[in-house]
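Appendix B, record 7
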Amino acid sequence: MYYLSIDFGTSAVKMEILDDDLRVLASEKQDYPYILLPGEKVEIDPEVLFDATSQAAKRLPAELREQIGVLCYDTFSPSPVFIAEDGTLAYPNIITHMDRRSRSITDYINEKVGKDRYLSIAGIYPFAGGAGIMTVLWMQQNEPEVLERTHRIGHLPTYVHHRLTGEWMVDLVNASMLGLYETTTQGGWSAELLDAFDLKHEWFSEIRNPGELLGALLPAPAKQLGIPAGIPVAVGTNDMAAAQMGAHNDRAGRIMNTAGSSDMVSVLIDKPVTNPGYYLRNSALPGIWQIYATTAGGFGIDWFYEQFCREMTREQFNTEYLPSCIDRYTTDGEVTFDPYLTGDRQSLDKRTAAWHGLTLAATRDEMLATMLKSMNKVLYDVVRLAADVVPMDSVIKLTGGLSTPAFIKLKEQQFPGFSFEVVDNCSVLGNVELARHYNGELRV
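C-alpha cells (predicted):
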C-alpha cells in the first residue's frame, strides 16, 4: 500500500508518495502566495491553496497515484478558520500565524480571566499570532456577522479534513493551539474559557488524535488530486508535531528544530510546566507535551536579500555570500539585532526588529551575521528554559531548508553542548508514522 502525505506550509505545499517501508517514491511542491492586508492582516485564499495542491498532485506519476491507499497531512498553525455549515468559509480566507490584527484582545483576555489564570489553563499567555482564540474574539468584537454564519471553528486541519471527508474534528495539537483547551491537564475544551467569552461549545468539534483514520476521501477532492476516492484519511495535525514523529522523537527530552520559512524549536516533555517565556502545547501523542518557540528564519533571510543584496543572484547569496558572513563573524561585536522581523509571538507587547551599535565601520556582512545569530539565540534561550523541566538529549534533530552546513556550523556555535543531526522530510514522514501508530504499526 502507498501513502500520500501532504505538508501544507506557510508559503508552499509539499507532498510525497511513500511505500510501506517509508521509502519516498515521488515528490512534488507548489508555491502559493499569502495576502497582506491593512491592519496587520495576513491571510491565504483557500482556493489558491487547494489549486496549488491539485497542481502538485497531478505532477506525481499517475501509476503511483492509482495505488495510494491512505491520505495523511499536516498544516502550519495557528491558522484560524470559520466554517459555515455547508463547509465553505464564513470568513473568506485562512488567517495565518503571521496575522496581528488581534493585538488588543490580549488586554481583553487579561481583564476577563487574568493572564496567569489563562496561562494555568491554556499553557500560554494570550499572544497575538500564538493562539486561535485571539482571532475568534477579534471576530466577535469586530465582525460578529462572521460568527453568525459560523458552524465550526478550528485551525486549518479542521477545514482540510472536512473538505476531504465531510467529517468534523479538531486534532489534539491544534486543540491546545486554539487557546480554549485545558492544555495543562489535556482535559478537553475548557468550559471556563468558553463561558467566560460567551463562545458556543458546539463551535468546537470532537478532539481526535493525529493519525487516527477518520472518514473516507470524497469523490470531488479525489478527482482534484487524481487519487482513488473512498480511501481512508488520517487526522492531520500541526507541522512541528508531525516533524517530531518523522524524526522518531516520541519521548520526553527529545528536541526538534525545523528551520525553514520560520525557525522553530520544540522540546518534548512529560510534565506540563508553564512559563511566560515559551508556549506549552500538546504533542501528537497523548501524555506528552511540547515546549515550543519560533522566530523569523527564512522569512528574515529573504527580506535581507531583497533589501540589501539584489546585485547578486539568489544562488550566489545562499551558497557563497551568506556562508562567508557566518565564517567571518563568529563572535559578537558592537552590532546587535532585535530578531522581530515577523514580530514576537511570545510577547504581550508589539515588538519590531532593529540593529543597534551601527557605526561607519559596520558592514552589511556583519549585519547579516548578527541577524542570524540573534534569531538562533531566541531558540536557544527556550532550550535553556526547557532544561529546567526535563533532562534533554544532546542531539537536536534538524530539518528544513536552512539545514545546510553553514547554518549547522552557526547553530552549533549558538547552542553550546548540543550537536545537530539533519533528518529529511520530517513532516511528511511524521504524517505516515502517526497513521501507522494509530494502526499499531509505529516504526521507531
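Remarks on this record: The longest strand covers residues 24-31. Residues 364-386 form the longest helix (23 residues).
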